[in-house]
Every structure is written in C-alpha cells, then in structure tokens.
Design brief:
The chain has 178 residues and is mainly alpha-helical. It has five helices and three strands. Strands 1-2-3 form a three-stranded antiparallel sheet, with no helix packed on it. α2 (48-63) runs parallel beside α5, α3 (66-76) crosses α5 (102-130) and α4 packs antiparallel against α5. The two termini are 39 Å apart.
C-alpha cells in the first residue's frame, strides 16, 4: 500500500471517530440535563416547571428541523452542514455554561438543539462517503447480482432502480430467478 493510500485510510478513520464523538455529544446532551435539574433550579432560582423547558426546548429545536437540515445537507454538502452544526453546538454549549439566568439557558439550549439538528442527518451521509460500498455490492444494469453456486450468477428477473444526480441511489429486486 502506498503512502498516500495509507494516509487516506488514516484520514477516513480519524473522520469516523470525529463523527462518532460528535454524535455521542448530541445524545448525551439530550439526557444529561435531567440529572442536573435540581442544581439548575437551585442555582438559577427557577421553579421545576421552568427548568423542564431547558430539556424540552433542546429536544424540540433538535427534532423539528431534522428533515429540513437533511435536505440542506443534500443541497450544500454534508461536510459543510456537519461542521456548521458542530460549531453552533459547541458555541451554544459554551453559552449554556455561562448562562446566568434560566431564560438565557433555555435560549442557548434552543441554539444547541439547532446545531444538533444540523449535525445528525449528515452523520450517515458522511460515513457512506468515507466508506463507499465495494463494486461487488453495487447493482448491475440487468438487476442485482446475488451470490449463487460457483460459476453461476443468480440475477433478479425484474429490478427497479432509481439514481440521484450524484450517482447515489437504490436498487430493489422484485423476484429472484435462477
């Protein structure tokens, strides 16, 4: 394996670990505040009903725009959207840590949720770009080739395929025949 190929392999795995850590932060952040509710209530002098909005605001800002942010990733590139989301999420996390009132904390959590929503749909897209399927897994023109007995090929008798403009898409086998 040549030096550039080894560098590309190392780069792919480093990028994968960065994505895993970013996604882990999103998942932990969705639940960690629940543990801190009594402390938040005490330190920011807020009642429990108001403190619950710290979690609810994040989850709403995270879940509602997911479809839109996925489409934005298709349009502007998943890497750019992931990086934007990560920057927004990180800055909002800093804002959460520096909040001096419950209102500022809730506002920072909304921004944090939007950052998480920008990151989430891009994770699987980036992974599929980093680790593309091998050519053996790709559909062929007459159907999807499937493993069969030695020296033979089992192909579907009917297949339907759809391809996006970037060469990605899906292929579906209707019924296999020998």
């Amino acid at each position: 394996m040549s030096a550039p190929a080894i560098h590309a392999q190392t780069h792919r795995w480093a990028a994968l670990w960065a994505i895993i850590i970013g996604y882990f932060m999103i998942l932990v952040d969705a639940t960690i505040v629940t543990v801190a509710i009594p402390t938040i209530s005490n330190k920011l002098q807020a009642d429990t009903d108001t403190v619950i909005w710290v979690t609810s605001a994040y989850l709403l800002a995270y879940a509602v725009p997911l479809l839109v942010t996925g489409r934005l990733g298709d349009q502007f590139g998943p890497k750019k959207l992931y990086q934007l989301g990560l920057a927004l999420f990180t800055l909002a996390s800093l804002g959460c840590g520096l909040s001096t009132s419950i209102g500022l904390l809730i506002a920072a959590r909304v921004v944090q949720g939007v950052g998480a929503a920008l990151m989430t749909p891009q994770t699987l897209t980036v992974i599929t770009h980093l680790f593309p399927r091998s050519s053996a897994d790709r559909p062929c023109r007459s159907g999807v080739q499937q493993p069969g007995p030695p020296h033979s090929s089992v192909q579907s008798s009917a297949a339907s395929s759809w391809e996006r403009g970037d060469g990605n898409g899906f292929s579906m086998s209707i019924s296999p025949s020998a």
